[in-house]
Amino acid sequence: MTSWSTSLATLYYGILADAVDWRSFTSGPVVDLGGGNGHVAIDLATRFPSLEFIVQDLLPNESAFKATVPPEPVSRVTYQVQDAFNPQPEDLEPSAYFLKAVFHDWPDIACIQILKILVSKMLKFGSTVIMMDQCLQEGKFPLYFEGVIRHSDIFMFSLFGAKERTLPEWEAMFATAHSRLRLEKAVQPSGSESAVMQFAIT
Ligand SMILES: C[S@@+](CC[C@H](N)C(=O)[O-])C[C@H]1O[C@@H](n2cnc3c(N)ncnc32)[C@H](O)[C@@H]1O
Fold this sequence. Notes:
about 200 residues; Rossmann fold; eight-stranded mixed beta sheet; 8 strands
């Protein structure tokens, strides 16, 4: 993961920044759930100075990466040790949850469990869920990307009993977590096998 987050992942920063109207998420922090060492949150905080981020992860990842980044934007990025399967902190009023390369590590049943926890905040605070993850576009994709995702699908299944998903599969999974949880926007940037998807309670 360290090698990935310091090399390939940087390619995604610009794609992600352009795919979402980040400036609209000022009513509360954006929570980067499963955010690892916080490299994405720190990049977004650098680009969008009006935003605050909370990086939640099972493992305390704070010190090593943060120490390499200037104080601004680091002051707007805080860290919480949080298990995604546990209730979210009561005093947290998030404008959005952001999950990058998290759900593809888990089978539907586990993702739905996580989503149901987020739904309670979405209902209360109107929070959005933004996700950047692999999204198989059958027949519409350069064969290279289809190969990458199908390979990853087998890899995820062998390691975690998880899988890669098509857009209708993502939508169905979210709708199972809550009947009013709908896809608002999906961006499939050219040059990326990962899509950026935005879900809200309608
Ligand atoms: C594939 S990494 C993605 C990291 C980061 N979002 C990125 O794109 O660079 C998955 C992350 O989920 C975290 N994770 C795994 N199980 C978790 C759990 N139960 N609760 C919270 N985070 C978890 C891992 O520690 C890891 O940082």
